[in-house]
Structure formats: structure tokens, C-alpha cells
Design a protein that fits this description.
Helices cover 44% and strands 14% of the residues. It is an alpha+beta fold. The longest helix has 21 residues.
């Protein structure tokens, strides 16, 4: 491994250690970690068979000139000239017959998002609650199901509610997303880059619209941002507010925007309005 690559990953490990030691710590300097080595690593992590964005360039084609492309991208980031391109929107069928909108950024933007996600996840992973299972390292949908099974097998259950947040990825409020990130990140450059990713235009059937809300599914950073947003508006609310109003046992298991937010024992009584 190149020495500079060792340096950036050593710094990420240091950030992870600090994040674990103090969940109230705010990080002031992160954008400098977007080095050519980290960008190259992010490129290598991308799906080589993924569809191209609006410019038609595939991951394979971008990687064929990786050194040149990464150098250009790094210079744009360092000189604060980076701009996120339009996200190509496609619609894929869901099991219920409806269509799910999927955003496909160009490869350059995917590289930036993937590198940013590695940095931000290092900070937030120690902060997330155990109730969250989606898009987290070492956790899967099977783990979420096993957690529900364990509770059901060991607790006298009265009822379970299965919830899906309708159109969640399309309706994330950008202003609140940045406010939530500011709880742990005060690096203005990094926050500005996240904002650029969120506000990239949407190209749908040849028409470009401004993205006022949402974090389009398909971008590498979208699942992480979704987890951060729901950590504050759902996970913490359930653990810090709702559970305190329950006389009996309750628990929640969340996988991205799907969750079982109330599994209750038969003797539960909710204090006050639910």
C-alpha cells in the first residue's frame, strides 16, 4: 500500500477511535481526507457493472483512465471547484406492481460520494443505536429478522406493527439533514459537499428538475444519510421518548425505512396519548 494511503486510513482509524470515545465530539477537519488515495479506493469499491449516469461513462471506462480522472477530481475538490452533475432517474418495478425511482449519478460523483460516505460513516457508526440494521457494516436483513425472532421467542408478545415510511428517500428535508450532520460535523467544506450531492439536478426523460427534497436512491451516500436522518427523527425518539411512556416492554427493529416500531407485552399500558 502507498504510504499516503496508509496515512489516510490511519487517520480514519483515529477518527473512529475518537468517535467511539466521545459521542458528543464534533469534527472540524475532514475534507482534507479526500485524498487521491481515498478517491482511488472509493473507485475500486464501485459496482463495475452498474449503469452509467447522464454522461454515458461506465465505471470500467472511468477506471481505464483512473490516474488522470482521479487527479482531475482531486484538483476540483482541493480548489473547491467540484460541482455535482445531474442524476439520471430511471424507474424500476417493485413487487407490488408500482415503480421505484432510482437515481444514477455519473461515476465521478459516485467516487466522491463513496469517499465521503467512508469518512462520515466512521464518525456516525459508533453513534447509531442497536435498533438500526440497514446498510451498516456487519449487519444485514437476516440480523434484523433474528432480532425480532429473539424478542418474540423470549417475550410474551401482544402485537407487532410493521411500518414502511412511504416515499422516504424522496422526501428527506435537506435543511434538517444538514442540521443533523452538524451535531457531529462542523467542517463547512464537507457539509457543503453533502449539500451539493443532495441538490444535484434530476434528469428524468430528458427534463432536468431541481432536487428540493430527498436523497435519491442509487447514490453511494444515500443509505448512510438515510440512516443518519432516521437516527434523529425515529430511533432516538423511540428510545428516549416513546419507551419512557410505556408501562410494559416495547422495542423497535429498523432496516432502512422499514421498521417494526412496537412489539408489546400483553400487560403494556401506554401512559398518556400514544
Amino acid at each position: 500500500m502507498h504510504r499516503n494511503a496508509e496515512d489516510v486510513f490511519t487517520k480514519l482509524q483515529r477518527i473512529e477511535t475518537l468517535a467511539k470515545q466521545d459521542v458528543k465530539l464534533k469534527f472540524t477537519s475532514l475534507a482534507h481526507l479526500l485524498t487521491p488515495e481515498l478517491l482511488q479506493h472509493a473507485l475500486e469499491k464501485l459496482n463495475k457493472h452498474a449503469a452509467p449516469g447522464e454522461d454515458g461513462v461506465t465505471v470500467k471506462e472511468f477506471a481505464e483512465k483512473a490516474e488522470e480522472n482521479i487527479a482531475t477530481l482531486y484538483l476540483e475538490l482541493r480548489e473547491m471547484k467540484y460541482r455535482a452533475s445531474n442524476v439520471r432517474r430511471v424507474h424500476i418495478p417493485k413487487s407490488n406492481g408500482k415503480l421505484r425511482p432510482l437515481g444514477i449519478p455519473i461515476v465521478k460523483d459516485r467516487v466522491v460520494q463513496s469517499a465521503m460516505a467512508m469518512i462520515i460513516q466512521t464518525i456516525y457508526e459508533p453513534y447509531f443505536l442497536d435498533v438500526s440494521y440497514g446498510f451498516r457494516p456487519g449487519r444485514s436483513a437476516h440480523d434484523a429478522l433474528e432480532a425480532i425472532k429473539t424478542e418474540v421467542d423470549n417475550t410474551p408478545i401482544n402485537w407487532i406493527v410493521d411500518v414502511d415510511i412511504r416515499g422516504y428517500f424522496d422526501h428527506v428535508n435537506h435543511d434538517w439533514m444538514i442540521k443533523f450532520l452538524e451535531h457531529r460535523i462542523v467542517d463547512k467544506t464537507m457539509l457543503r459537499l453533502v449539500s451539493k450531492c443532495l441538490k444535484a439536478g434530476i434528469l428524468d426523460n430528458g427534463v432536468v428538475t431541481r432536487n428540493e427534497d430527498g436523497t435519491p436512491q442509487g447514490g453511494p451516500i444515500s443509505p448512510l444519510l438515510a440512516n443518519i436522518y432516521l437516527h434523529y427523527v425515529l430511533d432516538l425518539w423511540f428510545e428516549k421518548e416513546y419507551k419512557l411512556r410505556c408501562a410494559g416492554h416495547s422495542f423497535m427493529v429498523r432496516y432502512a425505512d422499514d421498521c417494526a416500531p412496537r412489539t408489546l407485552t400483553s400487560d403494556e399500558r401506554v401512559k398518556g396519548a400514544a
